[in-house]
Design brief:
Pfam families: DksA_N, zf-dskA_traR. By secondary structure, this protein is mainly α. The protein has five helices and no strands.
């Protein structure tokens, strides 16, 4: 299951099976991936709304410093998660714009097809598996 995809949405998605001789990123494929991305965006929006309401409900001031510290730590973690979700929504919007521009499904680095299986696993992928692997190797080397 994709790391950032809400689990309840992923259970509803039926993997795309291309027809024999179907071109890569055909209109049907683009509709399929748009549906997945829009569903992800809706689910993430619901998660953010739930979290905001929960944080508002739990905004109690504790007299005990330990309780207050624990609450602040929980809030910080929650805010970090919400920020991650907000960034994912922004990326989803960018990917939907790529679909609209008929530029979806191709590696931003080398231009080859990313592949249906990779896009099913990670609909927000912008790099083919080879370029992503090289990118991760470079990141690890820079971190040393």
């Amino acid at each position: 299951m994709p790391q950032n995809m809400p689990q309840e949405l992923y259970k509803q998605v039926i993997p795309y099976k291309p027809k024999k001789g179907e071109d890569y990123m055909s209109p049907e494929q683009l509709v399929h991936f748009r549906k997945i991305l829009e569903g992800m965006k809706i689910e993430l929006g619901k998660d953010i709304d739930r979290a905001v309401h929960t944080m508002q409900d739990e905004a109690t001031v504790f007299a005990d410093p330990n309780d207050r510290a624990s609450q602040e730590s929980d809030m910080t973690l929650e805010l970090r998660n919400r920020d991650r979700e907000r960034k994912l929504i922004k990326k989803i919007d960018e990917i939907i714009a790529k679909i609209d521009a008929d530029d979806y499904g191709y590696c931003e680095s080398c231009g080859i097809e990313i592949g249906l299986k990779r896009l099913e696993a990670r609909p927000t992928a912008t790099l083919c598996i080879d370029c992503k692997t090289l990118d991760e190797i470079r990141e690890r080397q820079m971190a040393k």
